[in-house]
Amino acid sequence: MIDSHCHLADKTFAADLDAIVERAKDAGIERALVILEGGNDEEAAQARRLEQIWPEVRFAVGVHPHQAHQFAGDPDRATTVVRDQIGRTAAARAVGEIGLDYHYDFSPRDVQHAVFRGQVRLARELSLPVVVHTREADEDTIAILREEGAGEVRGVLHCFTGGPSLADAGLALGFFVSLAGIITFPKAAELRETVRRVPLDRLLTETDSPFLAPAPYRGKRNEPAYVARVVETLAALHGIPPADLAARTAANFHTLFRP
User: At residue 166, does pLDDT exceed 90?
Assistant: First the structure.
């Protein structure tokens, strides 16, 4: 199994990082893609510590839409920060987490757009996939991926909670669809129905830890070991054994991120 999106460099995990990694390994987690906030020195330091504990981890570096406002005066600087950090991070395999978030609007939308566009162009330049966050901004997110990706950029719609139109648009762009713990929630029946239309060769599994712990761990801090619950739920949806779903999604991860 693979956790294709988690935030193990977050300070939430600083005190017991070794134990978190040990539980992940005991649960059969092969590796994880850890998201790093571009320009965040504390996360970069914890990432270096994490590499020593778990050499199989890989990283994505990006400016999240929530932090885009930090570059309001010079959106191009976000791209420079991410490019430089990727250059210093040997295990970096993607640009992300990047995208648009109109739910919270922590950053002005025009700034979100400029920062997102610049990072998609960077991914084209570096021939790296993108890890995309989209919330209540699906049309604009897909439009920017089409315009700036130019059919060359591949990636993943992470922590997917959208409907059929977003799933279809992402698949048409060659993107993967990643499911987190929300897929296990009792009220997520509509999401589970949408996920049935995603081919097995386009699925990824993630935790987005420390957020969104799956049932029966809701309300607790999430961690990579819990990706097993996502695997079990997706396997049931597709009518295959969990081991087969885990093998398929692990192969998909390797196809996209070339770890």
Answer: yes
